[in-house]
Every structure is written in structure tokens, then in C-alpha cells.
Write the C-alpha cells for this entry.
Amino acid sequence: MLIISTQCFPPVVGGIESLIFSLAREFNANGEKVDVYADAIHTKKSTPFDEVQPFNIRRIGGLKPLRRILKARQICLQSNKHKNGGVVLLADTWKSLEHINRSHFKRVSCLAHGAEFPQEPKDRKRKRIEKSLSKADVILCNSSYTATRVGRFVEKSKIVTVTPGIQKPDENPEITKHISLLLEQHELVLVTVARLEKRKGHERVIQTLPSLISECPTLKYIIIGDGPCRAELMNEVKKLDLHNHVDFVGSLAGAEKNAYLINSDIFVMPGIKDKDNIEGFGIAYIEAAYYGVPGVANDVGGAAEAVLHNNTGLVCDANDIMQLKESLLRLIKEPKYRVALGENARKLATANLWSSKINAYAKYILTP
């Protein structure tokens, strides 16, 4: 039996929740009994989402500190019901291990994503992280970059790197056709799928657009997602008089999101470092790659492991906005090169479908 301890459920665009949901679904599909313990949503112990899942979802409410303690206690009680001692535990982050009694489980694994491991933590937080990770048999990092951050808190022998997989995307021919008609007048389409926050680098893309438009007058930039920087980004678009070239389409998922990816030419998400908030990997690059869309990323965090420079896209110096502009211009001016990178990207994404990727996780999560 596999018990999963997570803070947020169901999944959002990318992020920890999406990975946890994919793992729960794939392990269940492979015949493993799965119980997910998650935080209550608005104090509700069950949601319509929970009721249609093929695995059990148990929700725990209350104030955050108490909630974590109650969740850990219920997880341990559930484990005790299995007298054969065959229960394994997967935690979404070190915080979900903090109140767990390690002796209740055959094996304990913990996911690591990057930003939850501060580079200069205060002593109290460092000790909390170290104590939590000491309970894990293995820490699964989403990139080599994340592994270096984790290595400050736990012995390296416990650390492995397994990049996340992607689901075969949902598609709807009618929606895809509708988006195709909306974008057909645009010779080239850039797209970003990400939460609208500083570290994703939307502002930098917007600032390059005047130069790109001089080369490609009908260019369109599609921004998928929402977040705290929306108003600031819209003001930047207004200031540069780019309202005819930038569309904020809000948060989309499934067939709607994929319809835009199908009809795009370049996926751009030039992440920047915002304090300790940084891109640990960037599954959105791989989701775009599935449709043959090459990526443009910056060399911060683990993004350079999701976009392979001069192979599946281009990687720029995070501190040099001119490099970002030149990379985008190159892909605009050299369509054959852009298509070649896109084909390589498609092959990489296909090899990372969850149907095969789950085996890499099972090797460390289920095997003693």
C-alpha cells in the first residue's frame, strides 16, 4: 500500500500538486492501492474532485500547524491497520514529513522541487529540514540543480534525480480549430504557460516584443495563467503600446491550454531568480515540447535541464536580456532551425510520458 501525504490537491498548472496527482494516478493504474492525505479545501472533508478519483482521498482541516500534526497522526494510524507492515509513504515536501513517525513505514520517500530549500536558512529552519529529511530513505529531486540545493541538508547517498513526466495531453478538435482560426492571421505565435509571478520572466519577454515585431509585424504573444503580477504586466503592455500583440487568456487547462500550444511556434519562459524562489525544473517546457514547440529558457535553476540548448530549444544568460531577444529573433528568422529544434523537443517529450516514466519513480518509492 502507498500512502501519499500532500498539502494541496487537486493539481494546478504545473507545480508540486500536478506531480503528486500524476504519481497517485499512475501508481493506482498499475495496481497499487493508493491513499492520499491532503489539506481540506475551505474546511470541506470531501470535494466533487475527490469523489471521481479511483483512489482514496482523505482531507484534514484546521490551522496549518495543527493540521500537519493531525494529518501525520492519521497517516500513522492508517499504517498501523496493515499488520503485514507493507506500507510505504511518499511525501510531497519535507514539511509533510515533519511530524511523521518513521517506524510506522516500510519505506519513506520525499519529493524535492527546489524553492522549498533556502540557500541561506536560519538555524531553526535548517534543523527542521534536516530532521525531516533524516526520516526519508530517498529524496527524489526533479533536477540536478534541485539535488545540489538538497545536498546542503542531507547526505548525498539519499539523493536521486528523476525528472517529472507528462500525461498524454487532452485534445478537443473543435477547440483546437477555434483557436487556430483566432490565430491564423498571425505569422508567428509565442506562448508562456505559467503563474503570473516575477520569477517566470513574463516582463522580459514583453520588453523584447518591439524588436521582434519589427522583424515579424503580425507576431502574437499568448500569456496563459494568472497571478499577482497580472496588473503590472498589463501596464507594461499598455506602456509599450502592445495591446494588439499580447493576449492575457487567463488560467487554462486540458484541451483549451493544449489548443494554444498546438497553434504556437515558440514556448518562452525566461525565468529569473527572485530571492530563493526559482524554477526547479519546468514541466511546462516539456508539455509544449510534446507538440513540437521549441523552448526558450534562462540558465537559472533547473530550466536548462528541461530545455536542452541547441537541441530542443535555446538557453540564455539570465542576466542578459539581449541574449533573450537574440535567441527569439534567431528562431523567428530561421524557421527550418526552429522546426528542427521542435522535432527534437517532441522526441524528448514523448520519451517522458508517464506511461513509461512511472517506472523510474517506482524503483525508488516502492522498492526497499
Summary: The first helix runs from residue 15 to 29. The radius of gyration is 21 Å.
